[in-house]
Amino acid sequence: MTVRITTSPAGRAAKPGRITTVAVVGTGVIGAGWAAYFLARGLDVVATDPAPGAEDRLRADVAAHWPTLVRLGLAEDASQDRLSFATDAGSAVAEADFVQENGPEREDVKHRLFAVLDEAARPEVILASSSSGLLPSVIARGCPKHPERVVVGHPFNPPHVIPLVEVVPGRETAPEVVDRAVAFYTAVGKRPIRLSREVPGHVANRLQAALWQEAYSLVDRGIATVADIDAAIAHGPGLRWAVLGPFANQHLSGGAGGLAHVLRHLGPPTEEWWRDLGRVHLTPELAEKLVAGIGAELDGTDHDRLVAARDAVLDRLLAAKAAQPDLP
């Protein structure tokens, strides 16, 4: 597969070319998902990870993900044989057309790693980080030559299944780089959103964090168990959220009056609920209570079978959504 990016150049970034090879730097859970996904879209993937045994684990992970990707639909020229492994990051990115970095969430590690990527990758190649919360401006401090080509391309786990990618520019990111990143992710079948400016945690993780704050508080105050809270979301609003976002769902709940009706009638009590939301500190005691709660909820559940069941439902959900042209 060749991904052609045809946006007009702007800023200081060099003119883009065709994307046929993606470097995946870091092959843990997220990196392995990305590698499998890019292979499934018919791209060549050069992966690298310094951990002992990383190549064998990656190939096993890709093989494990492949049945799911087959169900979702492979590109005509997709093949696991298009995966190669480099012993170091510089070698991995030297001939790549796009770089997807998935290293640890530590500034010092990112700076050392991106210094290598900045030196070895061609100047026009985008350096996209899967960072779940670090600011791209902070990551770009490791790129003395071309900070303008650094962007966050944050996927959601599992990245070989979930379509969302958050594309976040830093202070020095060229607008054309953001355009190209969005175009690339779109071309390979992802559903990117483009943030107008950086913020810690981006968008989706901040929304999750808000929910976790109240969920942790409810457990901490003894109002509900971990299992009850999971059931409340998984068998309640989470079903609707899997189809439409919070604003669209709220709009539909207002009937003919839509969101305006909801805001008039439920806005005041919602503000009261906001004022009553818990403020929690993740103390060792609370952490122990949460871990014990999830242990009780999943007691006797096989981890691998649970992951497979989750992914199977996601497969069917994504297929059902794709078959509904009226969904945004």
The count of DSSP E runs of length 2 or more, i.e. the number of strands, is 10
Compressed to H and E, one letter per element, the order equals EEEHEHEHEHEHEEHEHHHHHHH
Instruction: List the total number of helices.
Output: 13
List the uncertain runs. Answer: 6-15
Second CATH tier, the architecture of the largest domain: 3-Layer(aba) Sandwich
Strand order, main sheet: write it out. 5-4-3-6-7-8-9-10
CATH superfamily of the largest domain: NAD(P)-binding Rossmann-like Domain
How many discrete domains? 2
**What Rg do the Cα atoms give?**
21 Å
The first-level CATH class name of the largest domain: Alpha Beta
Counting copies of identical and different chains, the oligomeric state is single chain
TL;DR of this structure?
With 328 residues, this protein is α/β, with parallel strands linked by helices.
Topology:
Layout: E1 3-4, E2 18-19, E3 21-25, H1 29-40, E4 44-48, H2 54-72, E5 83-86, H3 89-93, E6 98-101, H4 107-120, E7 126-129, H5 136-139, E8 150-155, E9 164-169, H6 175-187, E10 191-194, H7 204-220, H8 226-234, H9 237-241, H10 246-253, H11 258-276, H12 284-297, H13 303-322
Parallel strand pairs: 3-4, 3-6, 4-5, 6-7, 7-8, 9-10
Antiparallel strand pairs: 1-2, 8-9
